Amino acid sequence: MLQLIGIVLTILLIVYWVIAFSILYHLVRFGVGTPPKKIALTFIISSLVLSLITIFIYARLT
Amino acid sequence: MIQKFLSIFKTSQDSFEGKAPDERVLMVLRRHRFTIYTKITAFVLALLVPIFGYLIFYTILKTGGYISLFVLLSALWYLIFTLLIFYALTLYTLNVVIITDKRIIDNNQLGLWTRKISELHVSRIQDIAVETKGLIQTTLKFGDLAIQTAGSEKQFIFEDIPHPEVAKDVVMKLLASNSHGVRTI
To answer: What is the ipTM of this complex?
Structure first.
């Protein structure tokens, strides 16, 4: 059961980061002015924090 | 080096893809913030669902020993909705209207991989109109800027622009300087 949760979690995190990098790429490449850069920085920090929290919670579960 | 890195968050040259070296950016317009606040409100309310779920089903989760699993699912819930919020913010931020001293560029980000870029040269502008509809637009001072052109695309409409009369004045001055050959901006 926990192994299955682990596999699902890994797949979800991979999909999440693929989409996250797409968003970051668009903000940095096509953004005009400072707002896109601020949003990109906020997004990457919050994504990292949330991903680490999720992995930590799963580790505690096992 | 750190100061140089931090400076990109304070100042920007408003550069964009295809900008000519001698081209000056006069205004960068995005839709009024009210339009994005209404979109992300639903996502933000969804972030409260795990909290209410925990409060309502606490007894069942505690007796069944499912609290850790519930916390994990909540973390995934927050991850997904953070992605959705920033996706909406990305589309909002990338939808810009750039007014330079030579042209007006409408960059429409329709999806992550779908963009429509329309360009309007100043010499083709024939008529400009500003429209503010309803109580919310009047109170928050935003509206539509419509530009009539001589090109194949007859009308450019820039929706939900904050202070559209200011943008209209900038375009009018641009037109005047273009026709007289004297820079007034």
So the answer is: 0.91
Structure tokens at B71: 């916390």
Q: Residue B157: which residues within 8 A CB-CB, separation 6 or more?
A: B144, B145, B146, B147
Q: Contact at 8 Å (CB) between B85 and B44?
A: yes
B165: helix, coil or strand? helix
The series of mean pLDDT values per 10 residues for chain A, 62 residues long, is 87 95 92 89 94 92 75
Residue in A with minimal Cα distance to B10: A34
Cβ–Cβ < 8 Å for B150, B135 = no
> Which residues lie across from B97 on neighbouring strands?
B29, B106
State whether the Cα torsion B52-B58-B60-B65 is positive or negative.
Answer: positive
Closest CA to B126 of B63, B77, B172: B172
Contact A36 B75 (CB under 8 A): no
Separation of alpha carbons B178 and B99, rounded Å = 14
